[in-house]
Amino acid sequence: MLVKSYTKDQHMLTITDLKAEDKMNYAAAEKMCSPEVRKMIADNIDNSAGTIAYSKLMYLISAAFLDKTLSIVERVYNIWYCIFLLRIWKKWIKDKDSIQ
């Protein structure tokens, strides 16, 4: 939706970045989870909280392992943030299913 509605200079994505068949394209995944793309999604797509949360997780976990400018404390924080959010998300899904 962003690729068709907005110019590349706003979100930095291309149609080939979104190909489901190309699962080994790390550069595309890196672009998709960038803060700029998250902001565009939040501002322009309704009901996108789950997508934004997942994108933030991807960004934080990759930064924790690949960003050489982060301190050890920042790396550990990023990893634990992801772990706690995933645990809460999993519990929410289980509780939601058991209620229905």
Describe this structure in words.
The chain is an all-alpha fold. It has six helices and no strands.
Key descriptive features of the protein:
single chain, 100 residues, mainly alpha
Distance between the termini: 32 Å
Fraction of residues in helix? over 70%
* Share in β-strands: under 5%
Stretches where pLDDT is under 50 for at least 5 consecutive residues are none
Number of helices: 6
Write the layout of secondary structure elements.
Layout: H1 2-5, H2 8-11, H3 26-32, H4 35-44, H5 49-66, H6 72-99
What's the gist of this structure?
This protein is mostly helical and 100 residues long. The protein contains six helices and no strands.
